[in-house]
Amino acid sequence: MNPFTYARPATAADAVRMGAAPDTRYLGGGTNLVDLLRETIEHPAALVDVSGLSDAIEERADGSILIGAAVKNTALAEHRAVRTRFPLLSRAIVAGASAQIRNMATVGGNILQRTRCSYFYDEDGARCNKRDPGQGCDAIDGFNRMHAVLGASDACVATHPSDMCVALAALDAVVHLRGANGERRLALNDLHRLPEDHPEFDTVLAPGELITAIELPALAFGANAAYRKVRDRSSYAFALVSVAAVLDVRDGIVHDVRLALGGVAHKPWRAWRAEAALRGRQATEAVFRAAADIELADARPLRDNAFKIALARNAIAATLAGLVHTPGGQA
Ligand SMILES: Cc1cc2nc3c(=O)[nH]c(=O)nc-3n(C[C@H](O)[C@H](O)[C@H](O)COP(=O)(O)OP(=O)(O)OC[C@H]3O[C@@H](n4cnc5c(N)ncnc54)[C@H](O)[C@@H]3O)c2cc1C
Ligand code: SF4
Predict the structure, then answer these.
(1) pLDDT band at 235 (very low <50, low <70, confident <90, very high)
(2) The architecture CATH gives domain 225-322
(3) Measured in angstroms, how far is the CA atom of residue 27 from the centroid of ligand 1?
């Protein structure tokens, strides 16, 4: 591990001032970043510990919820208003990692955790454009069972690992940011990037920009929600495919729907096309499958992961059907 300095600012303004220095990283719970330091994949000159900032969850009069970036994953999943009004988020969080890691991990760190592509972590042998731009990507012709089927590029086929972010994508979460040029807000769906020719950039954040909070806009039908995670083992496993769904059915017709996928792309994948195909249609399994097919029409399998396309199709249909037959959703 390389030497680095450590600071623990008292305010977001101080953090941003410190974060503006070159080669500085913000530290949340450290459950991803410290591994990256140990493996010398990240070698910052300075760490700015933001885990003590803004750990409040505020219920607002308009029905939205404002979540400080330092709120721990466990605290968020267990919060009464989140569990009752946005159960999708609670279910996605508890589907990830372990209780010990969720106790440490922060909201900001979860959003910015890096891919779990094994070639990215293999500093000694593998070529990786995300780690060393221009080097090549050994996953494309390598062991790529866990990799992307949507939105990948010739430079990178990695997936985004977060479960929480799939729920945030479906819930139209808004990310509050603070940087050297002031504050701004960004839809979570616009925060993470597809890899294109620059997989070294996971997000559109400017250097030194700090996530200060996440806002969940009110969602009247948010209680009818399900998060389905398909994985190799029931714990300590990242999603092969996950589906986050919120569904509003009236008189057998899909009145409204929110749908996002995990484990399939470089970013949490909001299923905009499927949603458009579902609104106003009968809430039947045949319609759900047809909408899944529309969303997955551009999916491109690699050598080892064609199964993900059929898996995503089945998981979308089963998740939505579950919300019709068991309103209130399932874990
Ligand atoms: C064994 C294991 C299993 C796991 N399984 C899963 C799983 O199944 N599903 C899943 O979703 N996750 C899983 N995880 C990942 C885990 O969820 C993340 O490690 C965790 O959410 C990261 O949060 P953190 O606060 O510890 O982030 P850190 O490690 O502190 O930081 C992560 C990144 O975010 C940046 N950062 C942190 N806070 C801010 C901020 N406020 N503003 C700007 N940048 C910031 C850091 O600079 C760093 O780049 C697993 C992890 C482990 C170790
Ligand atoms: S898929 Fe992306 S992260 Fe994995 S080796 Fe290729 S460039 Fe690196």
Answers:
(1) confident
(2) 2-Layer Sandwich (3.30)
(3) 9
